Amino acid sequence: MKESDMWKQTDEEILQQIPEKLLAWYDENARILPWREDPQPYRVWVSEIMLQQTRVEAVKPYFERFLKALPTVADLAEAPEEQILKLWEGLGYYNRARNLQRGAQAVMAEHGGVIPASFELLKKLPGIGDYTAGAIGSIAFQIKVPAVDGNVLRVISRVLWRTDNILDVKVKRRMEGEIRGILPERVGDFNQSLMELGATVCLPNGAPKCDECPLQELCRAHLKGEEESLPVKAKPKKRKIEDRTVFLLVCDGKIALRKRPEKGLLAGLWELPSQEGTLEEPEAEKLLESWEIQMEQPLQKEKNAKHIFSHVEWHMSCWSGTVEAESDDSGLIWASAEELDENFTLPSAFKAYRPVIKRLLESLQE
Predict the structure, then answer these.
(1) Are 263 and 280 in contact (CB under 8 A)?
(2) Three-class DSSP category at 203
(3) CA distance 56 to 355
(4) Domain 3-229 is of which CATH architecture?
(5) pLDDT in tens, the chain (366 residues)
(6) φ, ψ for residue 271, nearest 5 deg
(7) Are 218 and 289 in contact (CB under 8 A)?
(8) pLDDT of residue 8
(9) Domain-wise residue ranges, the chain
(10) This prediction's pTM
(11) How far apart are CA 8 and CA 228, in angstroms?
């Protein structure tokens, strides 16, 4: 299509041409994913929660393991929280897992164990907003509702050459309304095709694969050569930097763990004992004394590490050492290597220290 003809068409006329082209492309190019092979409501729900802010390839093994351990809504509702968090370990954003269980418990209590085939009722479940309710509703129940995520916002912004800030709620609401007006009978496949295009072709970083795109001839941004300048996002706030000192304390072949507060960052999860600030050796020793911890030998300096959360960045220094005896007054618990692997969920913020823990525990067995 000539560029001059493209600008004669209204946004609505362009949008109306998308479903047929995109579904034909999707039928030939859709990735084979475990939740697509059997799109039962529970499977779709679990997959959508896992996929929030997480890559598809990273989710696959977690999804398989989670469904094997907790194959039904009832299983999820009744499972101990520690088991759920352990199954989630490494995916991050642990409130997703907690809300998933709260949602399952609500399904059992309020809907007789049956996930409701209703967009409005789905939205009332913990952890489910417009997008997730739209995804579950359209994919599992073929309800004619849109599912607009970052991929969809990017695709439509480029096709229509929209320069609005896609982080503005009003912009998203407008786009949801426009897509609602073009939803075909195969609504689940269509919503997935939009997301698939954004994930595999109309890429967010670097050059999109326009030569592979079924919407190339409709895309105003492509015709103008401005694909990579869209979509427009307001600059996020600069992340806050927090310095922390982490302690790897070993006693009788076990590593010290501590539970974080029930509110705030990594709420209620197990952590390696840590303290705000970068503590030099005298300060670190004084802190351990206040925890009723007696060291067998001087502390050893370990490598520094960094972990980035969405709004906070931890810069971690680390001390390690062997403790004379477990203290009941320290607020710590002690876990063997096997217990750490099987029973305790250690957030990925401490991933850099896993090899150090392994070395420390193995050195004591020699």
Answers:
(1) no
(2) coil
(3) 26
(4) Orthogonal Bundle (1.10)
(5) 555 566 678 999 999 999 999 999 999 999 999 999 999 999 999 999 999 988 999 999 999 999 999 999 999 999 999 999 999 999 988 999 999 999 999 999 999 999 999 999 999 999 999 999 999 999 999 999 999 999 999 999 999 999 999 989 999 999 999 999 999 999 999 999 999 999 999 999 878 999 999 999 999 999 999 999 999 988 767 889 999 999 999 998 999 999 998 888 898 899 999 999 999 999 999 999 998 888 988 899 999 999 999 889 999 999 999 998 876 656 889 999 899 988 898 999 999 999 999 998 887 655
(6) -140, 160
(7) no
(8) 78
(9) 3-229, 240-365
(10) 0.82
(11) 23
Token pair, residue 359, equals 């070395």
Q: Of 53, 41, 63, which is closest to residue 119 (Cα–Cα)?
A: 41
Q: Minimal CA–CA distance to 316: which of 306, 301, 325?
A: 306
Query: Would you say the C-alpha torsion 167, 93, 137, 203 has a positive or negative sign?
Result: positive
Active site (catalytic) residues: 48
Residues in Cβ contact with 325 at an 8 Å cutoff, skipping those fewer than 6 apart = 251, 294
**Which CATH number is associated with domain 240-365?**
3.90.79.10
Distance between CA atoms of 314 and 330, rounded to whole angstroms? 24
What is the pLDDT at residue 329?
A: 58
The phi, psi pair for 304, rounded to 5°, reads: -80, 160
| Residue ranges in the chain assigned as alpha helix (H) | 3-6, 11-16, 18-29, 34-37, 41-51, 56-69, 73-78, 81-88, 95-110, 119-123, 130-141, 150-159, 169-180, 187-200, 220-224, 281-290, 337-342, 354-365
CA–CA distance, 122 with 140 (Å, rounded to integer): 12
Q: Which residue has the tokens 């103008």?
A: 224
For 64, the 3-state DSSP assignment is: helix
C-alpha span between 99 and 104 (Å, rounded):
8
Provide the 10 A C-beta neighbour count for residue 145. 23
Answer yes or no: are the C-beta atoms of 126 and 102 closer than 8 Å: yes
Rounded CA Rg of the chain = 25
Measured distance CA(48)–CA(33) in Å, rounded: 12
